[in-house]
Amino acid sequence: MHRGAACAIILSEENASECLTMFSVGRDGFIKVYSVTDGIQLRSTKLGNLPLSSLALANSMDAYPIVLAGSFDNCVYVYSVDYGRALAKVRVHDDTVSCLQIMESSCQQIVTASWDATVKIWTMDEGRGSWAMTLDSSKNTKNASVEFVEQLLQ
User: CB–CB of 134/108 below 8 Å?
Assistant: First the structure.
């Protein structure tokens, strides 16, 4: 699977063929995509020069979901399984992105946590092949951030 330790894994049936698919990232810096149903590797792509630490899936109009991968280089990579390449690399923290979570709501948001001791909520916008993430400074987002952190502490 990976040449180093695997850091995150997600199993999903959200794709055009509705087969069970495994997404993983590891210390080797690779994102790997396997069809568990067919027993084959679909993709293996190295993202950046440092280990990948975390993983989340975002809805997409393509056959497979968009993969978000947190990295030791303080960035989140946005990866398309369908095109086999990174769509974007966004610096989101001052240290390793230790975890990611997609908040499914009326507008998709991503929560990132880091070794820099911060938790941030970002709004995701997908536009004609480019991705943008911006810190949402609205009152609702601040409250959601506090609620999320409180849930983590319980």
Answer: no
Sequence-separated (6 or more) residues with CB below 8 Å from residue 110: 56, 58, 68, 76, 100, 101, 102, 103, 121, 122, 124, 133
Residue type at position 96: T
Sheet holding 6-12, edge to edge: 6-12, 21-26, 30-35, 40-46
pLDDT digits (tens, 9 = 90+) for 30-55: 999 999 989 999 999 999 899 999 99
Domains, the chain, ranges and CATH?
A: 6-153 (2.130.10.10)
Phi, psi of 110 (to 5 degrees): -120, 135
Q: What is the pLDDT of residues 119-153, one digit of tens each?
A: 988 876 544 344 444 444 343 444 444 444 444 43
What whole-number distance in Å separates Cα of residue 16 and Cα of residue 32? 18
Contact of 120 with 145, CB cutoff 8 Å: yes
